[in-house]
Every structure is written in structure tokens, then in C-alpha cells.
Design goal:
The structure holds two protein chains of two kinds.
Chain A (H helix, E strand, L loop, with lengths): L34 H9 L21 E4 L9 E7 L9 H15 L4 E7 L7 H9 L1 H8 L2 H11 L4
Parallel strand pairs in A: 2-3
Antiparallel strand pairs in A: 1-2
Chain B lengths: L9 E8 L8 E6 L5 E6 L4 E5 L5 E5 L7 E6 L6 E8 L4 E7 L3 H6 L16 E6 L6 E6 L5 E6 L4 E8 L2 E8 L6 E6 L5 E6 L4 E7 L2 E8 L6 E6 L18 H13 L3 E5 L4 E6 L4 H7 L16 E6 L8 E6 L6 E5 L4 E8 L15 H10 L3 E9 L8 E8 L11 E7 L4 E8 L3
Antiparallel strand pairs in B: 1-28, 2-3, 3-4, 4-5, 6-7, 7-8, 8-9, 10-11, 11-12, 12-13, 14-15, 15-16, 16-17, 18-19, 19-20, 20-21, 22-23, 23-24, 24-25, 26-27, 27-28
Classes of the chains: A alpha+beta, B mainly beta.
Chain lengths: ~160, ~425
């Protein structure tokens, strides 16, 4: 297969990227959501233990937000990748913050977006474990049925309205 | 990513969306072992039972669980009633029963009952609850004989329950081999062998040995969470590509013989976006011989451990996590689905390029030949159909095969694909073979 020969270049420069204009997804009313809008959606989330926003604490940063367009003209699924930077490397609340960001984006974005929230590499002592949890749909779904945890997240998101 | 299919020999066509759908995420669907029904586990704490004849909702199983129902499984081989097991994020499993003796009459007499009819006998009756897991149940499955029920959970354990008599379940094993959440359990179709797949990226196999269930194999290969595990059906060599036995080269005939001795294979899928096929290394003949001598297992001289090796990786077509695969018991086709919303169909065939290697004829050294064929597989898996956006922009959580039972059925053995999605919908698809 040729897959291995293809350089892993940035999708933004892919000349075949034009899925938004493809005819079969026009009812999607694709509203050209950009990184800035994603940033605006999540920067106002409150930190669970400081009275400050994730934006002002530089937990979320515009350069760490990436939108990956659909990988095929037959698909309308885009991926939003957000890398968060926990305030300290042992921050036990990294998972909760990540969950808050994921919940915020899943609620605010149309369902054609897949939301991948990760801890920025090297900024957290257990980033791999945290990332795996945040990427596990089943664990996230179960966490959202947990009343205590949802209470914390609701409080974090209360400043977003 | 969009290179043409190697052999697009089927199209996947929509047949029906089961109605009415759930308004929230549906996780998994299980076709009834004998009746034209499918049960769907829903995040709204209910199980919906749909007819595969009319594609409409016939029952809602409610009130048993406090959180999402994640998994459902019908007990096989039950006469006169349907027995359904449900597993939930509330850490419990429920057993439900419905008398089916009047079902034939109901259908022929067209006895219509409203959905909200309070007729007690008509509903699934809560029968008992299986408590023991510490956290969310992720999957449960009845063994083919119906003797055992396996459950697995985020608490890293796999439990095996045995039904001693109606509504009296005993825990026969608590297996704690995995280091992380156990995502899926599945039974071997012929032997009492259980497989489990986990967040710890491994698959484990278990078997009863002298009254104790023990791990007999650990399968390493995936490098992300393994989401689903399923055995191949029984006797597939007479149903899939292997059924055509004329003019086989000696090499191929030998391979078939090896496959036969291995027994049903295992398929797994993962967050690493691969689907892998695993095969048991056939044991030496004399071990089988000693197995048949009736020597009590306690003094059996040979090891119960089994050697399972990775036989193949299917062509990679998914862009994101693959949540589910299903191996057809009729045709040997494999179907997969996942986060990218695609449904992909795979078929096994003889490898088109026959290796040039010359094999010794009639070599007495059979085991070495076995090694040889493991290194150079004689068969290959190809993608034969690809469907985008099966549930619109939503993720597909589960996919499985079921017997077709609506009036459009084209032949007795026709199968449908049932897909279950984040949009709350359960969809039914047919396969149309392309004439080339």
C-alpha cells in the first residue's frame, strides 16, 4: 500500500482539502468554525480550584488548538484537537479540566466534530494516562453520569454562558 | 486514505431504521438467538426490543437500572421463553424473562396490543440482579450452551456466573488478570473458553482447569485499548472461501488442515485502528491422545496453556477508534464500525500471489511445516465494501450480523447488518453483491 510512502504533512496544506464545498454535506450548513472560535468557547471555563479562567491561566492557548478537516470527501467529520497545559506538572485536576473542555466543546459544537482533548506532551507527569482516559468515550460517558463530578464540571462551565 | 477498494464486490444498502429510535446514545444491539428480535442497550437506562420483521419497537425493558444500560445478551438455547441479560454502568447485571409460548398465536391471530397496554404477562419480567462488580459493567455474554454468563467491568475483573436453577446464580470465577478496565468478553463457540479485551491493550483467554478458571493465554499486539473481541463461528471451513476444495495445491490443503486443527479463530479491534486475527497453535497429536484417555485432569501431565498467535492484520480503513467487529456465522465476512462513522466489510481469500518457495512433498516433519505456514500466510483479507456516514455524522458504537426476517428476504440464509449509533438509532443494512 502507498499509505506508508505518503509524507505526514500538515493537513492544512493538503490541496485535496475541500470537503466543505462538496455537495453532499450542504445541509450541514458548515459554518467555518476556526481555532479562535474554539478558543473563545473554552477560554472562559473556570479552573476548578482557582477563581480564574483557563484562558487567563494559560491552560488553554490558541496555538495549541487545531482543527483537522475531514480525511475524505465522503466524510463530513472534522476533528478538533485541544492540548491543555496544566498549571503544575502534578496537577491532579488535569483530568477534570480536560473533561470540562471536552464537555464544553461537545455541547457547543455540531456533532460532526470529534473532540480530542489531550494534555500537552511533557507538561504533566502522567500525561499518557490522562490522555488515554480523556480519549475513552465509555469512561467519559460514565464520568458524566457521576453526580459529584458533573457538579464540579457544571461549576467550571457556569462562567461560559 | 481513499484509494480504490481492492475488490468492491458488495454494496451496503439501507433497509430500515428501527422505529421509534432512542433520543439518546445507543450502545449495543443483540439479535435474539431464534426469534426475529433485536435488543438494544440505551444510555437512557432502558433496553428497547425491536422486531426485525416490522422494524418497530415491540418492548421496552425499563426500571431495572439506575444508569446507562451498556450491554445486552440473550441466553441461547432456551425453550418457551426469552431470557435477556443486561449490564449497566450502575455496576449490576439484570436477568429478564418473557414467556414466548403464546408468541406463534400472537403473530398468526394478529392480536394487536397497544404499546402502553398494562398486560403484565406480555412484558419482560425482572427476574434477578447480579451484584458483585465495583464499577460500570462494560460487556456481558452467555456461553453457547447457556450454562455460563460472563461479565466484565471497569473494576478490571471478569466474573463468570453459573445458573444453578432459575434465578439462582452462583459466581464460579472472579478473574483479575487485567491491569485496567475490561471492555469486552466473548465465548468460544465449541469449547468453554472465554476471551476478554481490555484498556490495558491485551486480550486474555481463560479455561476451567480442575474446578478453577485460569488464564491460558495472553495476546499482545494492539497498542491501544482493545474494544471488542469475537470468535469465529463453528465449522466455517465449509461455509467461507475454504468450502471450494477442488484443485487445491498441497500447500493450501495443508494450510486448511492446520486451520481445522486450530479451531475457530479470534478477531479483535482497537483504538489503534487495527483489526487483528488470532489463531491457536494446534497442539501435538499425542496431547490430544492423552486428553482422551480419561485421566483425571488433576494429574494431567501437559500444560493447559494455549499458544495463540497473530495470524493477520486486516487492511486499515478506519480513521479513528474501531469500537466493534462482527464475524458472520454464515459467510465468514467480517464487518467493522467505529468513531469515524464508517462500516467496512472484509473478506478472506487465498492470497493471489502464490509464494515461490518449494515445499518438500510428504515430509514427515509436520511441525516444522506448521511453523513455516505461520510465517507466510497463504490467505489474505481484502476490503469488499465501504460505507461512509452510516449514522450521519455520529459515531457507530456497535455492528453485528443478524438473520434477515422481513418479507423482502431473498433467500433463507440471507443476513442483515445491524448498526447502533450515538444518534440513538439502530439501522438495518442489506448486502448487494456486485456483478462483475
Amino acid at each position: 500500500l502507498f499509505d506508508n510512502l505518503t509524507p505526514t504533512y500538515n493537513y492544512l496544506s493538503d490541496p485535496f482539502d475541500g470537503p466543505d464545498s462538496s455537495g453532499d454535506s450542504d445541509d450541514d450548513s458548515v459554518e467555518d468554525i476556526d481555532e479562535q472560535e474554539i478558543y473563545d468557547l473554552i477560554s472562559s471555563i473556570s479552573d476548578p480550584e482557582h477563581p480564574l479562567s483557563l484562558g487567563s491561566l494559560a491552560v488553554v492557548n490558541l496555538p495549541d488548538i487545531h482543527i483537522i478537516p475531514p480525511t475524505s470527501p465522503h466524510s463530513s467529520i472534522s476533528t478538533v484537537v485541544v492540548e491543555i497545559t496544566p498549571t503544575i506538572t502534578h496537577c491532579s485536576l488535569a483530568t477534570v479540566i480536560g473533561l470540562g473542555v471536552r464537555v464544553r466543546l461537545e455541547q457547543a459544537l455540531p456533532p460532526r466534530f470529534r473532540v480530542d482533548v489531550r494534555v500537552k506532551k511533557g507538561t504533566h507527569s502522567t500525561d499518557t494516562a490522562v490522555n488515554k482516559q480523556l480519549g475513552d468515550k465509555e469512561r467519559v460517558a460514565a464520568a458524566l453520569e457521576n453526580g459529584t463530578l458533573m457538579g464540579v464540571i457544571r461549576k467550571m462551565l457556569a462562567t461560559c454562558e | 486514505m481513499t484509494s480504490p477498494l481492492e475488490a468492491p464486490s458488495y454494496t451496503i444498502q439501507p433497509l430500515a431504521t428501527l422505529s421509534p429510535p432512542s433520543s439518546s446514545r445507543t450502545w449495543q444491539s443483540a439479535p435474539h438467538p431464534s426469534l426475529p428480535l433485536v435488543a438494544t442497550a440505551c444510555s437512557d437506562r432502558n433496553v428497547r426490543v425491536y422486531s426485525l420483521t416490522s422494524f418497530t419497537l415491540v418492548h421496552t425493558v425499563t426500571g431495572g437500572h439506575k444508569r446507562s444500560v451498556r450491554t445486552v445478551s440473550w441466553k441461547p438455547g432456551v425453550k418457551g421463553q426469552s431470557v435477556l441479560a443486561t449490564g449497566s454502568f450502575d455496576a449490576s447485571a439484570g436477568i429478564w424473562r418473557r414467556d414466548e409460548r403464546g408468541l406463534e398465536d400472537d403473530f398468526t391471530a394478529q392480536k394487536q396490543r397497544g404499546d402502553d397496554d398494562e398486560e403484565e404477562d406480555d412484558d419482560y419480567q425482572f427476574s434477578c440482579i447480579l451484584d458483585g462488580h465495583d464499577s460500570e459493567i462494560k460487556s456481558l455474554s452467555w456461553s453457547p450452551s447457556g450454562q455460563y454468563l460472563a461479565t466484565c467491568s471497569r473494576d478490571k475483573s471478569v466474573w463468570i456466573w453459573e445458573e444453578l436453577e432459575d434465578d439462582n446464580f452462583e459466581t464460579v470465577a472472579v478473574l483479575q488478570e487485567h491491569d485496567q478496565d475490561v471492555k469486552c468478553v466473548a465465548w468460544h463457540p465449541e469449547e468453554d473458553i472465554l476471551a476478554s479485551a481490555s484498556y490495558d491493550e491485551t486480550v486474555r483467554l481463560y479455561k476451567e482447569d480442575a474446578d478453577d478458571w485460569v488464564q491460558i493465554a495472553q495476546l499482545n499486539g494492539h497498542d491501544e485499548t482493545v474494544w471488542w473481541v469475537e470468535f469465529e463461528g463453528s465449522g466455517m471451513s465449509t461455509k467461507d472461501f475454504r468450502a471450494q476444495r477442488e484443485n487445491l495445491s498441497q500447500e493450501r490443503a495443508q494450510h486448511l488442515e492446520l486451520l481445522e486443527r486450530s479451531g475457530p479463530r479470534l478477531a479483535t479491534c482497537s483504538d489503534d485502528r487495527t483489526i487483528r486475527i488470532w489463531r491457536r497453535k494446534p497442539k501435538e497429536n499425542r496431547q490430544y491422545a492423552s486428553q482422551n484417555t480419561g485421566i483425571p485432569s488433576i494429574i494431567r501431565s501437559f500444560n493447559i496453556d494455549e499458544d495463540w498467535f497473530q495470524e493477520a492484520i486486516l487492511p486499515q480503513r478506519h480513521d479513528r477508534v474501531i469500537y466493534s467487529i462482527s464475524w458472520s456465522r454464515k459467510t465468514g465476512l467480517i464487518v467493522s464500525a467505529g468513531s469515524d462513522g464508517k462500516i467496512i466489510l472484509y473478506k478472506e481469500r487465498w492470497e493471489s500471489q502464490v509464494p515461490n518457495g518449494v515445499k518438500a512433498d510428504g515430509d514427515a516433519n509436520a511441525p516444522e511445516d506448521a511453523e513455516e505456514s505461520q510465517r507466510t500466510p497463504l490467505t489474505e483479507w481484502i476490503v469488499v465494501a465501504e460505507l461512509f456516514s452510516a449514522h450521519g455524522v455520529f459515531e457507530v458504537n456497535h455492528v453485528c450480523w443478524a438473520k434477515r426476517n422481513d418479507k423482502g428476504r431473498r433467500h433463507e440464509d440471507e443476513e442483515i447488518i445491524v448498526s447502533t449509533g450515538d444518534d440513538g438509532e439502530v439501522k438495518v443494512w442489506t448486502l448487494d453483491e456486485l456483478k462483475t
